[in-house]
């Protein structure tokens, strides 16, 4: 589906791009012409003076630059990370702008400007509004018309994830571990053994494990074991990506019609909604029964916690809870899957890290991880370095302006435009990281900790003393301040569990290391679903049991 997504988007883009570049040049020329005409009527300026103005010069004398500008905006779809990097290199720490076909983004990287974004009220800069533009929930999430402004009807989701799910991690890790191990065994069973190894496409293998983990954590064991539900819920993610992109790219006047047709033709949101709703309604009923003094089943999952933390004065309806769960599902499965895939690629490319990581996973550190869902410092550093060198996202801290917003120094963000951070470029900047282009899996480990794991190769630590951890908020990976990802502790624990299984169960290498392993769409770098890994079962393995 992801490769289908890539090729469908490419074809749709080339076709609609040609029309829209021409159309938008014509329409922008027309609107500039009208502005000039109005200006001529309303000012004292002579036509000659006005003719010298930049607008007239640009549009009437230099239509070519308008075409170039639009073409560049469309090229953002295929080379977004590069466009952002080029702007970053020129800006020298100052804000700068980039254009996509459907929007203008102002990118900021200094501490001062990032703090200004975080301090702006939700009624001025909104993460929710940016997310709404990104995934078009009205069409992709069963008509979910969420609020632009955060917390209008409470923020039970943030409390659910940040506190309740985080505390619950040690309880669910053993199930996630054993289910993932079984998923891996099953996937390998269907593949022939050649020269002692099996070649398995990595992305579907990881996706199945993440889908199970998140379904268990969010919806509970009943739905996590329902294969038909998991299939629809998995399709929902990739179709949402595809549909939202098409709706964003077609001209505004036909976006609604396109949305309706796509919903009718491709959507799986109804199936997911209809499977979740009775479960949620049953929970609401149980809560009512409990209030009357009846004893009811105990559930520990996000359905239950969102219900319990929703505002007492105006509790959320079943439908509202389901919509929130669907958005949570979409936002979490994909990013965790892709981040794990790149970390596994890095394990294949840097096999010298495997032995110390195995020692850690089979030693005393593991006990701490089982109890708290935290720790495993070598693996933590390896994942952080992998995400630093190959981040899925090139933009973070996205905020859409609901009112005009000005940054200190004069940069303006108009209503509808976004302000965000160039996370990928920042993570490759020598200002923040020594030898930023090089991969050093134990960059963030304290040398004493590394020594405990013995006499392996002499790992280079270009940033001695920097013991930053995966879940720390100093690197834009999880966003900024009060909006920073509330699911990061869960995400880190699941990533360590799944990557830990690859490390302890297999010797691994890329099947075709010379082939490209990713493709770009807008600001995202996606692992190619066809990339396969050669897995050799480690007969002498002591499994990383939980
Ligand atoms: C590698 C995995 C993940 C990454 C890189 C990631 C990254 C992010 C980022 C960059 C933001 C925006 C923060 C901002 O703009 O300031 C965010 C928000 C969010 N994330 Fe994650 N995330 C991940 C996994 C998860 C998971 C597994 C969950 C759920 C368990 C989750 C739930 C959320 C929610 C609900 C928000 C919105 C927070 C709000 O509205 O205040 N994320 N995440």
Low-confidence stretches: 1-47
Quaternary organisation: single chain
Strand order of the largest sheet: 1-2-8-5-3
Cofactors and ligands: protoporphyrin IX containing FE
Approximate strand percentage: 5-15%
The rounded distance between the terminal residues' Cα atoms is 33 Å
What structural class is derived from the secondary structure elements? alpha+beta
Number of helices: 21
Task: Give the mean pLDDT.
Answer: 87
Biggest sheet: strands, sense, closure? 5 strands, mixed
Give the overall shape, derived from the CA principal axes. globular
State the helical fraction.
55-70%
Rounded to an integer in angstroms, the radius of gyration calculated over CA atoms is: 25 Å
β-strand number: 12
Subcellular location: Membrane
Protein name: Cytochrome P450
GO cellular component, one term: membrane
Cofactor: heme
How would you characterize the overall build of this protein?
One of its GO terms (molecular function) is heme binding. Keywords: Heme, Iron, Membrane, Metal-binding, Monooxygenase, Oxidoreductase, Transmembrane, Transmembrane helix. Heme binds at residue 485. One of its GO terms (cellular component) is membrane. Its main location: membrane. Residues 1-47 have low confidence and may be disordered. This protein has a domain at 1-61. Strand 6 (405-406) and strand 7 (412-413) form a beta hairpin. It has 546 residues and is α+β, with helices and mostly antiparallel strands. The relative contact order is 0.14. It has 21 helices and twelve strands. The chain has helices at residues 2-42, 47-51, 54-61, 63-91, 111-119, 127-135, 137-140, 156-189, 202-219, 221-224, 227-249, 252-266, 269-291, 302-309, 318-349, 354-361, 365-372, 377-389, 423-427, 447-451, 488-505, and strands at residues 96-100, 103-107, 125-126, 198-201, 396-401, 405-406, 412-413, 418-421, 506-510, 518-521, 524-527, 532-537. The strands form four sheets. A five-stranded mixed sheet has the order 1-2-8-5-3. A three-stranded antiparallel sheet has the order 4-12-9. The two termini are 33 Å apart. The structure holds protoporphyrin IX containing FE.
